[in-house]
Amino acid sequence: MGPSLATLLCLRFCVVQALQSFHDLPPPVFEVDPQYPVPLGQPLKLHCMGPQDSSTYRIYKEAVEEPLSLNDSSWESKTPRFEYPETNAQHAGRLRCVYEFHSFWSKPSNPLEVQVSGGPSDSTVGSLSFQTPPRGFYEKPLLWAVPGPSVPQGHNFTIHCNSSVGLDSFVLYHGKLEYEFKTIRIHSIKKNEAVFFLHNKTEDMNGRYRCYGYMSSEPHRWSTPSDVLLLSGGLSSGWCIMIHLIHVVLALAIPCGSC
Predict the structure, then answer these.
(1) What is the end-to-end Cα distance of the chain in Å, rounded?
(2) Whole-structure pTM value
(3) pLDDT tens digit string along 49-78?
(4) Which positions ≥6 away from 92 have C-beta within 8 Å?
(5) Which of 13, 28, 133, 193 is deepest in the core (most CB within 10 A)?
């Protein structure tokens, strides 16, 4: 009597697993554009780069607290580019990608954190097979600087980001989000407010600041961005006194024509 169907299927599975381990396909390179929080309704591009002859690409979303349905957690494409003209809530999350190469699947890529915010952007876009949720996750936080938006060089100052809707986590960006931006490390949070301490003010601390808030239980769904805080560099009090004295000396040195 020949081997049973179950035995053959098991043998085939073991052979495939052995071949898979033998090939040990390296993980793809996974990239996201843009790299800053993507506003709802705006474009999102994901690039899963495997070997040239790869036939299929898949993106998986890892669950934060509970398992996700297959429709909500995986997307498949015959090309390495996943382009979604209109970002929605389903795109937010921790993503990994894999590729298929001659019937074998690669190791998963390093994870990418895709944050989606409730705010508008300057660009426009298009669609995905998910329903677009209502716009906006949370209201924008309030952002301000102490002692004010004009800080003399060499002085210390703080930037405050406050949520009116009870958000418990915050991120502060410095610079234009389109390029050359950086995040500022948070120092303390209390009563729905984050405080960022910046010491010994320098020229490169001037410019645009913007903050976001989110709930720690939903770390990839961010608020609408705050209004831009424009920080400038004022002269120190010592320089102001010096300039005032120079004005007085010049005024006294100019002869009075009516005398």
Answers:
(1) 130
(2) 0.71
(3) 998 889 999 998 886 554 444 455 678 999
(4) 114, 115, 116, 220, 221
(5) 28
Q: What is d(CA 190, CA 206) in angstroms, rounded to the nearest whole number?
A: 26
pLDDT in tens, 107-136: 999 999 999 998 654 333 333 333 333 456
Dihedral class, residue 154 (left if φ above 0, else alpha if ψ from -120 to 50, else beta): left
Q: Is the dihedral of CA 9, 12, 17, 18 positive or negative?
A: positive
> Beta 193-198 vs 207-214: how paired, if at all?
unpaired
> Which two three-digit tokens encode residue 52?
């040239």
